[in-house]
Amino acid sequence: MSKPIVAIVGRPNVGKSTLFNRIVGARVAIVEGQPGITRDRLYQEAEWSGRSFMLVDTGGIDFQENDEIVSNVRHQARLAIEEADLVLFVVDARSGLLGSDEEVANILRRTDTPVLLVANKVENFSLEDNPQFLEFYSLGLGEPIPVSAAEGKNTGDLLDQVITLLPLEIKDDYDPDVIKIAVIGRPNVGKSSLVNSILGQERVIVSNVPGTTRDAIDTPFERDDKHYVLIDTAGIRRKSRIYISTEKYSVLRSLKAIDRSDVALIVLDAEEGVTDQDKRIAGYAHEKGKASIIIINKWDLIEKDDHTMSIFTRKIREEMGFITYAPVLFISALTRQRVHRVLELVDYVSEQHSLRIATANLNTLIREALLHNAPPAPKGKRLKIYYATQKSVKPPTYILFVNDPELMHFSYLRYLENQLRLAYGLEGTPIIFKLRRRSDEEG
């Protein structure tokens, strides 16, 4: 199921990140609570009145580039329009209408993407106290919606309008037994070439110009009576100069592909190593509970000795510590080196992703883990785990009934995860633990 994307755009210092944080209900644009995930996140799942959507904060885009600010704002807006289902165009009601606001509006008026004009930093909703508010009507984008993102004023009314403009979430019509494979990664790492190499024929466009693939392309195919769908994703649409801000925007199409997938092939460029963008994309696949394989492409271009592969793998594990469960495969889509192993690994991690452990076996493992390494007892109160059961698969999700969920430390959950992996493999899939008090068991 693919969630609609809402992008927040506007010139610097209008409060885009503040609005982003207000909508998602946490300061995720600044602080990431889960260890190992990159902190400069640009996206977060949000919900309002039962409707879920992906919110994208363009405030993370670097404006310290060679081009003028107005040019970057214009470029940012164009990218947001291309990727999003709805755009929130934020302006500053205190400073009034500026030239860079008009630059963005010129682009937004020429698109079919729905736009909501949001006038931020409105402390008093009287027009007498905000005469400059009327200036924004001249942008031709409808009535400005006054909000104070910092104080949360009128953001509920804004979200009411957001959900009325969002498209419905789209479910895939594929059979449940079909393995949907998302080929994701930064622009120009060889995603389309990998798809072509797997299929053995030219089903999608291949080019060394980032952005050749315009939209996600689904390619159903069969191998050994197994059914698959390859979802190839474009990195960028523009074929002209490649901007740093454009590079950051390539994550958006990957989000949609990951949402729809069972297995994510996270493609990295062997010559460039792990970048922040790689971590951002992989982090989303991890958080969405997808089975994952790290594909190191262009391995044929690397000078190697007997230790190169192990050194490279160690660096990946260090840089992407949150996804150490994902197998690493070194390939060349161009020469087809080890490409035959991709689907073998897809089959394997898909099985692991769907693995169900019998309740008796699961509780035996938990008891043995407790005996071998008892939970810590902060302030003299020790965590007790009474019972465990598997709630679901894809990813494997386990409920632990305990005396007090707050006594569970992250490090001890990691220990339990490691014990599960030692006993049952579970390679390529995240593991989810949910904690409940024992009194919650019947509910």
TrEMBL record:
One of its GO terms (molecular function) is ribosome binding. It comes from Desulfofarcimen acetoxidans (strain ATCC 49208 / DSM 771 / KCTC 5769 / VKM B-1644 / 5575) (Desulfotomaculum acetoxidans). This is GTPase Der. PROSITE patterns: G_ENGA. Keywords: GTP-binding, Nucleotide-binding, Repeat, Ribosome biogenesis. InterPro entries: G_ENGA (IPR031166), GTP-bd (IPR006073), GTPase_Der (IPR016484), KH_dom-like (IPR032859), KH_dom-like_a/b (IPR015946), P-loop_NTPase (IPR027417), Small_GTP-bd (IPR005225). Associates with the 50S ribosomal subunit. GO terms for biological process: ribosome biogenesis. GTP 2 binds at residues 185-192, 232-236, 297-300. GTPase that plays an essential role in the late steps of ribosome biogenesis. It holds the Pfam family MMR_HSR1. Gene3D superfamilies: 3.30.300.20, P-loop containing nucleotide triphosphate hydrolases. GTP 1 binds at residues 10-17, 57-61, 120-123. PANTHER family: GTPASE DER. Residues 4-170, 179-354 form the EngA-type G domain. It comes from the Bacteria. Belongs to the TRAFAC class TrmE-Era-EngA-EngB-Septin-like GTPase superfamily. EngA (Der) GTPase family.
